[in-house]
Amino acid sequence: MNKTILLSLVTIASFSLLTGCFANNIDAVKVTQNAVVTPQSTTTKEAVIANNAAEPKRPFSYLEQLPEERLREYELFVSDKDIRHFQKFSPEEMLLVYLQAAAMGDVGIIYPITYDDGSLPEPDIFRTKYYKEVMNNEMVIALDYRYFDSIKVNEDTIKENELAVVITASIGSFTSSVAYGLKKEDEIWKVDIDHLFESDN
Q1: pLDDT surpassing 90 at residue 47
Q2: Range 116-143 burial, b when 16+ CB lie within 10 A, else e
Q3: Listing from the earlier edge strand, what are the strands of the sheet with 150-153?
Q4: Which of these ranges, 54-63, 137-146, 163-172, 180-189, has the smallest mean pLDDT?
C-alpha cells in the first residue's frame, strides 16, 4: 500500500510541475476547439505605430475621387491644354478638379475652367488677381473639405446650363457645407467664381 500511495504522490507532484511549467505561456498560445496550438501575434502597439510612421504617406488628391476614364482625360488636358477633354465631366467632377487646383494654387488649371461671362480678364491679370484676392480663402476651403462626406448637385438650384454643387464634410457632430455655382460654357461645366474677386469699382 505504501507503494501505491507513494506512486500517487509522485504522479500528483509530476502533474503539478507540468501544469506549473505551462501556466506562464497561456498568453502566448491559443488553443482552438481541435486542440491545435496557434502562436499569438507578438507585435506590440508601439511597433505598429512605428511601422505606420515609417511608411511614406501619399498626399491627398481630390483627383483620386475621379473615375479612371476622367483621370485619363484630366491628364490629357494637363499635357495638351485642350479644354475639350472636360466635356464629359459632371458638375461634381469639375468641382473636384477645381478644388484640387485651388489646393495647389494652380492657376494654370483654374483659369480655363472658370466661367467667362465676358468679364474674365486675360490670364496674366487673372493670375495676379487670383493670387492676391482669392487664393488664400480657396486654399483653406480646399484643405478643409479634403475628407468630404458628400459632393452633389443641389437640385433646387438647377436651371438651364446653371446649378450649384454642394460639398459637405463632418467631424463628430459638426457638419459643414460649401456650395459652388457652375455654369455650362462650350459644353463644359465651369466654376463661377467671379464674385470671389474684389470689385474694380
Answers
A1: no
A2: beeeeeeeeebbebbeeebbeebeebbe
A3: 150-153, 162-171, 174-185, 188-191
A4: 54-63
